[in-house]
Amino acid sequence: MSELISAPRGVYDILPEESEQWQWLESKLKHVIQLATYREIRVPLFEHTELFKRGVGETTDIVNKEMYTFLDKSDRSLTLRPEGTAGVVRAYLSNSMHRQTPPVKLWYFGPMFRYERTQTGRQRQFHQIGIEALGSAGPAIDAEVIVVANDCLQACGITEYRLEVNSIGCTECRPRYKELLKKALEEKLPMLCNDCKDRFNRNPLRMLDCKVETCRPHFVNLPSTIAELCAPCTEHWQGLLDGLQRAGLSPIINDRLVRGLDYYGRTVFEFISTDKRLGSQSTICAGGRYDYLIDTLGGSPTPAVGWAAGLERIRLVSSAPSGAGPSVFVVSSDDKAALVTATNLRRQGISCDMDFAPAGKPRNLGKQIERANKAGARFAVIQGEDELASNSVTVKDMKSGEQTRIPAEELLSWFDGKVGAAVACTAAHD
């Protein structure tokens, strides 16, 4: 016997029981996002490596350490997408979507790839859902994307979290803050990690995003990003806070929050779970404004804002129900007759299963009833020899045990008259 091949480290199989939870989450998230008139865009799984180097930033951990990059047969450098925004912006420019009436409001969903240490809620192939609003510079659109994120979490039954927000300024006021930050950290530089030392000159703001525990104690009594904002950034910041308050959100102001990607400016935010099941990987949704990214990727300067949420982490803390069984299980002495009955029920929108015995012949009715119970069926439709001979069926309520014998031609109408009986399997998730 050949040796079994296991999945590579950092990837995993989504089994049927989990897949049904994913479908439930995706439907909840999609519903909230589309109510806010965001439209789906689907971009490639891999792009030219230069897109992420220019878009995400060469000082980021993603570009420096985590990307899955390879040469194709024509020696072109390609990279599996590590995040969604850069690809969406590339598609926005490539397809002349900038000519549409702004803001262009898009959403995406799919797998991302990063080579990093696996732990709870973090894999090397993971899934994100995100939204991007391109073309509006005002704080109202910032507030909208944050409110939509909040409503997405609420729709998934997630309540244990906090919202943290900050402003990291613009190209006018941020250089002044960077110099103040460097001055405050210069004496501490020998005690910091090598990444922080590298970022000190290249992008000192990124030092505040360092996750090394030995560095964190040195990041105290530092200048506040908010205190150094210019007048337009201050006005935008106050407009954002007012918009969130009017929408019923109470964010925590965290003037150390910078996010880990170079393209952010002004607004940045994170939704942080307080559910202990996530451990240290507690950020479940994050984003911000990236007014300079489109210009960096070859387009005209265009304001934009968005977020991404990790589905693996959301599933761990959501109220996604376990998989629902079929509404009906057909138990029959004749598998051909059973298939006809199951097909008719399915065509009426009723989820239905039947017994397919390994030996190819129907098992006895008792065994089939056991299978119906194990499958979690709400009802069993029984076609024993007596029922088949008299063109009738016996419907058994699997909860109460009550049985009702009816003519076979009345089966579909019998289910139509039962509240909550004849439903598609997805209804069990509502």
The total of beta strands comes to 16
- Termini distance? 46 Å
Helix content: 25-40%
Q: If strands are numbered along the chain, what order do they take across the biggest sheet? A: 1-5-6-11-10-9-7-8
Q: How much is the average pLDDT? A: 91
CATH superfamily of the largest domain, by name, is Bira Bifunctional Protein, Domain 2
Instruction: Give the domain tally.
Output: 2
Strand fraction equals: 15-25%
Outline the biggest β-sheet: 8 strands, mixed
> What overall form do the CA principal axes indicate?
elongated
Task: Describe the structure concisely for a colleague.
The protein is an alpha+beta fold and 430 residues long. It is 33% helix and 20% strand. α5 packs parallel to α8.
Report on this model:
The protein is α+β, with helices and mostly antiparallel strands and 430 residues long. The protein has 14 helices and 16 strands. It has helices at 16-35, 49-55, 61-66, 85-94, 139-155, 174-185, 194-202, 231-246, 293-296, 311-317, 335-347, 365-374, 385-389, 411-416; strands at residues 39-40, 46-48, 69-71, 77-80, 104-113, 125-134, 161-167, 252-253, 267-273, 283-289, 304-310, 328-332, 352-354, 379-383, 392-397, 403-407. The protein has an 8-stranded mixed sheet. Strands 13-12-14-15-16 form a 5-stranded mixed sheet, sandwiched between helices.
